[in-house]
């Protein structure tokens, strides 16, 4: 009994530690490279606009947004939203993040399949993740049918996390290609800029690992409840 409880506590600890480690890695890497200016001395906003123009994308607006590392691309409004530090910053970190978000805009313009699939999953995954836990808890108390329905809903949310991985990695690859080809970064800056993108990618990997682990736990609990 004690061993089982100990194993469960270790499992819960790992689910908490993995995302925290990934977030810590992003923040420390960002802090380091936000202090190193690129040789081009372009701001994040200028980087975003140049890459968009070079790819013939003129219907996307580059906007400043509030918050720390709140950068994102909004396909509905056609906006690349950069946090204040990255919008005005001339660092490797600012350039990397701006280029990454424009990478999503390029995906959108090129009709990238995984981005389309993720966008179609988003509303279902949001509803599913909110309802899943309630259904699973109700299923543990009342019926296996509700438990199974909760697992199905949660599976959609997990699928969303998994589909996010190729979307994010592809955006980073596009970002590096654009930064190098336009001359925004040069020489050893390429290696250092890539560290920023890799650190950011780890947050999505961590989220996917946690989601898959939770899904497997629910499936095992469901199987055990039917014995």
Total domain modules: 1
Enumerate the strands of the largest sheet in spatial order, edge to edge or round the barrel: 1-3-2
DSSP strand count: 3
Low-confidence stretches: none
Order of helices and strands: HHEEEHHHHH
- Report how far the terminal alpha carbons are from each other: 19 Å
Strand content: 5-15%
The percentage helix is over 70%
Described by strand count, sense and barrel closure, the largest sheet is: 3 strands, mixed
Q: Which shape, going by the Cα principal axes?
A: elongated
Rg over CA atoms, rounded to whole Å, is 21 Å
Question: What would you call the structural class?
Answer: mainly alpha
Mean pLDDT: 92
Q: How large is the count of helical segments?
A: 7
InterPro entries: Zn_peptidase_2
Protein name: Zinc metallopeptidase
Pfam families: Zn_peptidase_2
Keywords: Membrane, Transmembrane, Transmembrane helix
């Amino acid at each position: 009994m004690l061993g089982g409880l100990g194993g469960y506590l270790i499992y819960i600890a790992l689910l908490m530690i993995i995302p925290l480690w990934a977030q810590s890695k992003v923040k420390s890497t960002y802090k380091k490279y936000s202090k190193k200016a690129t040789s081009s001395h372009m701001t994040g906003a200028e980087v975003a606009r140049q890459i968009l123009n070079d790819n013939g994308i003129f219907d996307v607006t580059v906007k400043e947004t509030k918050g720390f590392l709140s950068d994102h691309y909004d396909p509905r409004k056609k906006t690349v939203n950069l946090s204040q530090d990255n919008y005005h910053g001339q660092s490797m970190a600012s350039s990397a993040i701006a280029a990454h978000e424009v990478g999503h805009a390029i995906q959108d313009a090129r009709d990238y399949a995984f981005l389309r699939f993720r966008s179609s999953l988003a509303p279902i995954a949001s509803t599913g993740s909110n309802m899943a836990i309630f259904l699973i808890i109700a299923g543990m108390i009342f019926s296996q049918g509700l438990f199974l329905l909760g697992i199905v809903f949660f599976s959609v949310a997990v699928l969303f996390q998994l589909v996010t991985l190729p979307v994010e990695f592809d955006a980073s690859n596009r970002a590096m290609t654009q930064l190098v080809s336009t001359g925004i970064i040069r020489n050893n800056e390429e290696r250092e800029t890539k560290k920023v993108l890799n650190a950011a990618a780890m947050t999505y990997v961590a989220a996917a690992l946690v989601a898959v682990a939770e899904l497997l736990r629910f499936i095992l609990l469901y199987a055990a409840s039917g014995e």
